[in-house]
Amino acid sequence: MTAPLTLFGGTFDPVHLGHLQVVTEAARQADLDKVYLLPCHIPPHKAGPHASPAHRLAMLQRVCQEWPLFEVDDRELRQHRPSYTVETLRQCREQDSHRPIIFILGMDSLKNLNTWFQWQELMSLCHLLVCRRGNCEEDFNLDIQALLARHQTQDPEHLKRQPCGHILLADTSIISQSSSQVRQALMQGNTPSLLPACVLAYIQQHQLYQGCKKTPASGRPC
Ligand SMILES: Nc1ncnc2c1ncn2[C@@H]1O[C@H](COP(=O)(O)OP(=O)(O)OP(=O)(O)O)[C@@H](O)[C@H]1O
Ligand SMILES: O=C(O)c1ccc[n+]([C@@H]2O[C@H](COP(=O)([O-])O)[C@@H](O)[C@H]2O)c1
């Protein structure tokens, strides 16, 4: 079986060490040696983004220069419409119907998965590799409980042996950081914690996020 195509979707406004650390750990647990950071153009479920697509992409590219695990997949940025994951995955699937596709997401995203566009199609297109997230109880609603009952596996090998259909809850660290907290710190003139130095330097160089309005941590209910 070909090596999986592993995508980590996000708004990355901006990318922070919470993203990078938990995904590095999840990738290690699933024995993955490449993860594509997939910045969305227009996030379907939240306001913003605050920084332009070009700036968010540039920050991710700087991260990739320092973290060999990561590359950027900018396909969603090139499409000027809301970035529905199911549509992106269909595009990927058209290129190779047998290759395993793994979509990485945080626990807060998993808990809201039943609100995603055509969410019931997702498991026929990809596997889900889920990272733990601070302040996020594992109290799943009935749709997600049913999804897990049907698709959850404890065996990372399943994600590499089949093209789609499994959910692995990875045993990752809890890193309490969000892009909202980073933006808030910058707006208040503070230096955010848990931000890669290359990203902080880019933000300072381009004076990003100085006039951001306060948004709740992680931007949605968890
Ligand atoms: N600290 C973290 N730990 C685990 N997963 C995270 C963390 N931060 C973000 N994620 C996950 O990364 C993906 C992309 O997140 P996103 O780019 O929206 O960052 P965010 O920090 O949640 O942003 P915001 O605070 O603006 O809502 C989501 O699936 C989210 O659950
Ligand atoms: O497809 C959807 O309806 C959908 C709804 C919410 C989020 N997503 C995807 O989930 C990823 C994380 O989104 P966010 O809002 O947490 O940055 C990103 O790739 C989004 O495109 C997708």
UniProtKB/TrEMBL annotation:
<keyword id="KW-0547">Nucleotide-binding</keyword>
<keyword id="KW-0520">NAD</keyword>
<keyword id="KW-0662">Pyridine nucleotide biosynthesis</keyword>
<dbReference type="Pfam" id="PF01467">
    <property type="entry name" value="CTP_transf_like"/>
</dbReference>
<keyword id="KW-0067">ATP-binding</keyword>
<dbReference type="InterPro" id="IPR004821">
    <property type="entry name" value="Cyt_trans-like"/>
</dbReference>
<dbReference type="InterPro" id="IPR014729">
    <property type="entry name" value="Rossmann-like_a/b/a_fold"/>
</dbReference>
<dbReference type="InterPro" id="IPR005248">
    <property type="entry name" value="NadD/NMNAT"/>
</dbReference>
<keyword id="KW-0808">Transferase</keyword>
<feature type="domain" description="Cytidyltransferase-like">
    <location>
        <begin position="7"/>
        <end position="184"/>
    </location>
</feature>
<protein>
    <recommendedName>
        <fullName>Probable nicotinate-nucleotide adenylyltransferase</fullName>
        <ecNumber>2.7.7.18</ecNumber>
    </recommendedName>
</protein>
<comment type="function">
    <text>Catalyzes the reversible adenylation of nicotinate mononucleotide (NaMN) to nicotinic acid adenine dinucleotide (NaAD).</text>
</comment>
<keyword id="KW-0548">Nucleotidyltransferase</keyword>
<dbReference type="GO" id="GO:0016779">
    <property type="term" value="F:nucleotidyltransferase activity"/>
</dbReference>
<comment type="similarity">
    <text>Belongs to the NadD family.</text>
</comment>
<comment type="pathway">
    <text>Cofactor biosynthesis; NAD(+) biosynthesis; deamido-NAD(+) from nicotinate D-ribonucleotide: step 1/1.</text>
</comment>
